[in-house]
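ping. complex inputs:
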Amino acid sequence: MATVALDRVNKRFGDFVAVEDFSLDVAEGELLVLLGPSGCGKTTTLRVIAGFADASGGSVRIHDRDVTREPPYRRNIGVVFQNYALFPHLTVFENVAFGLRRRHIALSEIARRVERLLALVKMEALAQRLPKQLSGGQQQRVALARAMVIEPDVLLLDEPLSNLDAKLRHDVRHEIRRLQQMLKITTIMVTHDQDEAMSMADRLVVMNGGRIQQMGSPQDLYLRPSNHFVASFIGQANFLEGRLDGDGSRFVTRSGLAIACAPSSPQAQSLMIRPEAIERVDASASGPNVLPATVEVVTYLGSTSELTLRLAGNETVLVTQPSNNDSQRSYRAGQSLCIRIDPASAVGIAAA
Amino acid sequence: MVRGNRPRERLGRLAFRSAVVGTFVFMVLPIAMVLWLSFFSNEILSLPPEGYSLRWYSEMLGQRQFIGGFWTSLNVALLATACGLLVTTPASFALTRLKFPGREAILQFLMSPLVVPAIVIGSALYMSFVEFEVRTGLGIAGSTWGLAIGHVLITIPWSIRLITANLIGVDTSVEEAALSLGAFPLVAALKVTLPLIWPGVVAAALFSFVVSFGNLEISLLLVAPGNTTLPIAILQYLQWKIDPTIAAVSALQIAVIGTGLLVTDRFVSLAKVV
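pong. complex structure:
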């Protein structure tokens, strides 16, 4: 049974349509990520689920209860805000206890549950501090504890990592995932960071212009993006313009280059190839998709190198290769070589 | 501040300092003069004083209208402050947190006691009170409550400005966090927002008290014999006599307001909120 079910949710601000026909089922215990560029409607969707914004149309159900017209305080949700929004005048303990006090739980039970959550986020030693005496990472953990302690039906995370520095962000990602799985809390997270989204999500929803572009597992979206936007938003991708030929497993570029590809939709107007799906092969190699190429630019990134290659039809593609640290075989601009494109990883993509 | 050591820069610095000192003297001098005069021993005000005494303070304590006026003013100011805050705090919440048609107009309307001459407000209130008394038999004009109602009007613009300014400064996501944790809007306002805007509320209370305690024009038409505020008692005394008793009374008024400022500053740093 779905924990959260959105049915054709719309949100308009005057003439501006922020969210359009948004339908989504979130399963029990799932971590679902809404991913998209700023202004794509992901935060608005989260605010509609939380009840901070009214849906202009459609319905929101939590545990099969229609909450579309319910205020936030009757939804049993936990929210972690981008700026954490801790209560500045209350101690860490009182911040976390706030939701429990509103639920008229016995004092001993409140203390027990707050202490358990503070221990889980490793903040028990700082329970009597005020938020301004905490670092950003600590505040974030308090915000998580405060939202989780009430055992919400759904936990909503609004860009929870965007105010942390890069190193911390990486740790907190795993921390959130660990807690979420341990407590089995159904979670919806909003982010514009695809790495964050890919590494944390059970399921991803890519949004753009207020609409769902594609929904699926991180692998689905990475390997089989349904349109150009999704393909370019998640990971790096090469796009070759052209059309499908014959039975749909051969793509002909504008310059006439024929490339064997995975079965794709007939409307495909470009061929997407991930940079790591192109490998260097010996000139003697045979088989499909072995093409000559010239190295244009080499960017050394440590364990890998990025090569910009020019193909026979004058198309350029970006290729990621393990760095060859043996100077004899290292890549250099102007070099000619042969590459092979994995047909299973070449996918025809529709325009939008 | 002007930096550097060239003649023009030195001159600039001198001009700046003179302006600061000049303004400061301009503000402090009248108060200092009043305090000084209140200790003169001569009855006719003249400089230099013939000597110093506490005679005018005992004179003041002997005059019933000053002592009575002081208590009336204190009562009225406390009542007006309390009633004013009870009205303006919820009003400020509504003005900053709700969207409704005419919001701007209402805000401007609440500022209007600053625009309408206070004597006009006093007259209008007096006529309304008389009319009210004619119809109901309840006499408000001349009572402490009548005065307080009038004074609430002039405290409203100050309180609304100070409290709305503080409310606008509160991050709304903090209030949303409270709602998401199950707090009803009133609970969220009392447990979360109010503590955050407390400095503004204290400042509003202080301004209201000062504005009410020193008010003359509105009180003028609303006082009754035996129920006179301190500024009116001073005015009435001045019509007959000028001697340093007035200075002593003024010193008392300055002391009350000064104490209010100092006590408030102990709880909320006034430099932060005003």
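Chain B has a mean pLDDT of 85.
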